[in-house]
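so my prof wants the structure for this chain in the tokens format not the other one, which i didnt know existed until like an hour ago. anyway here's the sequence
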Amino acid sequence: MRLLPRVVGGGWPVVIELGREMPGPPDVVWRLITDWENQDDWMLEASDFTVTSEQREGAGVEAEATITIGGIRTRDRVRVVGWEPERKLVIRHEGWVSGTGEILLARRDDGSTYMYWREELSPPLGVLGAIGLSALEPLMRRIFVRDLRVLEGLVRAAAAP
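here's what i got, hopefully its the right format
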């Protein structure tokens, strides 16, 4: 199991990068990360996922979720802007905090999947928002590490014979 957190901050945007090996093939990981209404099974800071577009697959899918981090609660609107099944998912955050999220999947020789997750987030409220989001960086990193650990367990269960 390999985990590589990296946080670049001190202003905006805030960038968080994580990587983790998942104990199942890319199709299993892909199915879990694109099961929109059940993303709160592994993204524990999120709830009330709703797809707001008629489209459910591919670039153009739109969804919303309630996100709670550090006692701050907001509704996050997202739009899928990159879609390569079992390889790449890119979303654009269009809510209170804007930015992009990218997940890349790579099949390993042993049949597992290496998952790279990058969030680039820009806060509202100018300098005040940048200070606040920068202060939340360590907490967000811990939350995203936990999310990947939970997803790893779901992948393990889903990939079991």
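also thought this was worth mentioning. The chain has one domain: 6-97+116-159.
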